[in-house]
Amino acid sequence: MSFVSVLRNLLLLICLLPMLSLAQDKLEKQRQQFLEAEKWSYYPNSQTFIELTGQLHDYPLLPYLEQNALLSGIKLSNEEAIARFLQDYDKTPLDSELRQKWLNYLAKRQDQTRFLKYYRDMGDDHLRCLNAAYRLQQSEFREQAFKLVPELWLVGKSQDKACDPVFRQWTEAGHRTNEMIWQRLALAADGGDHTLVPYLQSLLPKSQQYLGDLWLQARRNPASVSRLTNFPVKQPEREKQILIYALKRLVWRDQALAVKTWQKAADKFQFRFDEELDMARGFAIAMAVENHPQAEFWLEKANQGDGNEDIFRWHLTHVLRHKDWQHVADVIGNAPKDLESDYSSRYWLARSYEHLNDPVAAQKQFDTLSSVRHYYGFMASGKLARTPSLADSPLQVSETELQAIADLPAARRAQEFLALKRYTSARREWLQMQPHLTHSQGLAAAVLADNWGWHDQAIFAFSRLGYLDDVKRRFPLAFDAQLLQSASKHHVDPAWAFAIARRESSFMVDANSGAGAKGLMQLMPGTARYLAKKQVSNQVLFDPQQNVEFGTQYLRYLMDKMQDNPVLATAAYNAGWRRVQQWLPKEGVPLDIWVETIPYKETRNYVKAVMAYKQIYKQRLGQEQNLFKDLANMQISSAMTAM
Length: 643
Known about the structure:
It contains 38 helices and two strands. The protein is an all-alpha fold. Strands 1-2 form a two-stranded antiparallel sheet. Helix 12 (210-220) packs parallel to helix 13 (236-250), helix 26 runs antiparallel to helix 27 and helix 31 crosses helix 33. The longest helix is centred in the N-terminal third of the chain and has 38 residues, at 3-40.
């Protein structure tokens, strides 16, 4: 670019700066007006609300004020306004709350015609049942309604009361079969609401009602199926289903009794190949996890048919645990093509060649794998003492493409919710927009999210859309001030702190797991309380700076527990340090084998991911150290945590 061009662009920017500043000032003022108008939106006829909304005619979140106003006035006289709003914002988050309240209002009035006109399936069982019930009452929709019923029926829990008349008419019309009763009973017994079983049992013919008792006994106490005299072989297919369910649970508690019962059951019943394979897989995984002496027998038996990935992984894990290197090569050689050629298989094949005195073949495998940005690629690099390859290829997106996405109404609403720190509402808008974008638009949206500092949505989108080589955007130096400062304060490797935050939350500040972990580094409230020596509020844990402070403090605590071994401390961050200590072998085991044989799949994958992320962040932070050069040669034993 010439000096004249640069000067022209600079002058243009200088001219635009006052305009940009005015636009930003206006937007900030509108945000404050929106927050004030929101308080008045449930009084839509008030002068204050009318004046405020008049000043927000071009503000992206104005529809939310209109939605609130309509929600406060659900009545037939407002039907025209409600219908127009639902049409204008169909398939957006603005639709569902208003539509749901409107449908419930119409249902209360028994206004079936209007209900069916506005009905959309939103996953609300009450409304779904009413939809079917109303359709059944109108002859032209009757057969169509019957087709909706199986999906409502086949659930392992009690359905909404609105479904009762639907099920009654469906039954009277002859659509409910004994097989459908059985399917629902099985769903209730196997992980559903078992209190529903007696009712469903009563619907079966008397000659089959004993099956309900067998299911309940098997659920309460899997060992009860060892009394095979309780299985009269009157309904062999259904009795076999109960037996397999119970034995797959029993094998985790009493392997000997499970095997003995299965052998006796095989004499009593004629099991199909697929049933035998299902049983073998259940036994194989349970025994492999426990390192049971019969694990190899069941793994070989289970590793047939369609090449089940879980069985292959556990078979490989089992032979690695015993360092049977020829068997490692054989298991990989017999794997389905897609599993035989994946990174894990290629790495372990190379390791088997090392021990089978074929260094040339090992070198060839490691050499090919070392160019891959992956845990196993980095491990291969460590074996070769090479700097791991990041294979970074940033996505190029034009300003025009970015602006086109930014101008979409849903994107503008999402950006405003972000500015107001209403992350759930922002995500709802953003995610509901995604299916309407082309692949290239989706990637542009990922770049835009990254530009906004909305790193979690950028990371998820790149993964979902299969563009994995934009390393800087997929592994951003987000919240760097907090992470670098706290890592330094607690003497923790900053690359490790970044890696933990990336794996735990993808830098989502309001991340909240089902187990109760919160914030950037997914701290449990109990852990924070222990570290702070006092109660810590959710508000504190959702504050990025304070969450990172607790998170890095906890990393230091785990490093102290694990004698400064970052791999063990990483495993402890996921599974707890006491459990990790239980997994440590007395004699030294190569680190890669120890990681591969961690009993918990979640922790096993977690450790691999965090170690790989740590290497990426080391290189992103300008640390040239090859972390995996040390890991590839490390031994793990219980002596590492001995005090």
